């Protein structure tokens, strides 16, 4: 999860277990805006193979629908699912298995996906085959529920998709502004608060230099404007503001 950074450095921020694994979750974010209910990414879901469960260190039980219920919502209430990229830990929950086949989990939703990301996911190579599973993604297209975007795109007023690259070639993040407050969700570019430092880039990133360049570009504004960051894999800090302690950037959790 930290690429070429020595363990002696990153383990101060995120302690590993005896198997050298670090704790991570899939934080999902629901946004109510413009009379719609939207979700940013959709987690692992509950259709994982036994091999995938072992890889991700999960029992494969999804809390998605029960968590929506706690917020007074059902899968039928979700209007928009925004998929920053199509790795299993971000898009696996987009479908469920019913009568022996995969079908879209959200029957009334539009799934927003980068066109370039879709093409790469449909044709995985030796490195990406473990994280792109075309048979779990094609049902979204077959149901006619996908809206493709290309590059930076205003999805709705105040909600903008921004191409980041880095993690994958067409990975994108979200920038949201309302009432003078900005929230950013850059997905796996900043997968946890431990990844704020520019060179702390996971080995899973296909284009690590692009990840670093994007970090350099956005971090000054995040700090200067008090932007709220949403972290997709942070166990203790799904939402935070970032400030400088004079030497390093430090995330402070917020409600």
Search tags:
255 residues; alpha/beta; Metallo-beta-lactamase, Chain A; seven-stranded mixed sheet; five-stranded mixed sheet; 7 helices; 14 strands
Characterization of the model:
A hairpin with a 2-residue loop joins strand 4 (95-98) and strand 5. This protein is globular. It has one domain: Metallo-beta-lactamase, Chain A. A 7-stranded mixed β-sheet has the order 8-9-10-11-12-13-14. A 5-stranded mixed β-sheet has the order 1-2-3-6-7. Strands 4-5 form a two-stranded antiparallel sheet. The chain has helices at residues 7-10, 50-56, 64-70, 88-91, 115-122, 134-142, 208-224; strands spanning 29-33, 36-40, 80-82, 95-98, 101-104, 110-114, 146-149, 153-156, 159-163, 172-178, 181-185, 228-230, 239-244, 249-253. It is of the alpha/beta class. The longest helix has 17 residues, at 208-224.
Helical stretch count? 7
Overall pLDDT confidence: 95
N- to C-terminal distance = 26 Å
Strand order of the largest sheet: 8-9-10-11-12-13-14
Main sheet attributes: strand count, strand direction, barrel closure: 7 strands, mixed
| Strand composition percent | 25-35%
